[in-house]
Design goal:
Layout (H helix, E strand, L loop, with lengths): L1 H4 L7 E2 L12 E2 L5 H14 L8 E2 L1 H8 L3 H13 L3 E3 L6 E3 L4 H25 L2 H19 L3 H17 L4 H27 L8 H10 L3 H25 L1
Helix pairs in contact: 2-4, 3-4, 5-7, 5-8, 5-10, 6-7, 6-9, 7-8, 8-10, 9-10
Length: 245
């Protein structure tokens, strides 16, 4: 079938806006697997605001724009839904770009602050030398990822550092809830981290080494203070960013 042949050599750019979305964006595509190309292009457009919340992600429209068959496009849209960047408003009606709102952000970060401050308090009191070594390795990886502009890797390493501290507290249910909150707010975190890296703003990445040192010293009070401060700063950054989107 003609549509299948296009999978091996997709067009290098999307140069036409999604029908009905009001967008005329141009998204770069890197030479990887076709589904990865489409996913990366759409993800970038969503996180930068080029594709507004509520824009329809029609499979055939996207396939026509990139010059590929519908199968890799379906896979890309499925991945967008899994990562919280797209949602389905009703069965059999296709996906739309997720809406990012200040209200949702505030609700998520209020719950995060409550749970993570408590997790830091518990963890800092029980963290082991092995835990500290793992936190240190994650911090080094995070700083390297930031320097190289690898946003998702930097966030993964940040979460690995904190997960190690929180898990030391010995409450797996608490950690599971926090993990789910991280997944829910990952798109917001990507928006803030991308902006910080692009603007060479190191303030988003300075709390982690300080939290590491507090854990090394088993300083419960300082670990909880830094965790609370870090979450408040991240929330303020994102609130400002969403208002200007």
């Amino acid at each position: 079938m003609p549509g299948k042949k296009a999978d091996a050599a997709p067009k290098p750019e999307i140069t036409k806006g999604l029908q009905g979305s009001g967008s005329s964006s141009s998204f770069s595509i890197t030479p990887t697997l076709v589904a990865d190309q489409v996913y990366e292009a759409l993800r970038t457009a969503i996180l930068t605001g080029e594709l507004a919340g509520g824009s329809p992600l029609r499979v055939r429209d996207v396939a026509a724009m990139v010059g590929t068959s519908v199968m890799p496009v379906r896979e890309a849209i499925r991945r967008l839904e899994e990562t919280g960047l797209a949602t389905r408003v009703a069965a059999h009606r296709g996906a739309v770009v997720r809406e990012f709102t200040v209200g949702e952000l505030i609700h998520i970060y209020e719950v995060r602050a409550t749970l993570e401050v408590e997790a830091a308090r518990r963890g800092a009191a029980k963290v082991t030398d092995k835990d500290v070594a793992r936190m240190e390795a994650a911090c080094v990886r995070m700083q390297k990822a930031v320097k190289e502009g690898r946003v998702w890797d930097a966030l993964d390493d940040d979460e690995d550092l904190l997960r190690t501290l929180y898990s030391a507290g010995g409450n797996p249910v608490l950690m599971d809830v926090i993990d789910n909150l991280w997944l829910q707010c990952r798109p917001y975190k990507v928006i803030g981290a991308t902006e910080a890296i692009e603007q060479n703003d190191a303030s988003l990445w300075t709390p982690q080494p300080a939290i590491l040192e507090a854990a090394r010293a088993r300083d419960v009070k300082e670990a909880t203070r830094l965790t609370k401060q870090s979450l408040a700063g991240a929330r303020q950054r994102l609130e400002k960013r969403l208002v200007t989107r």
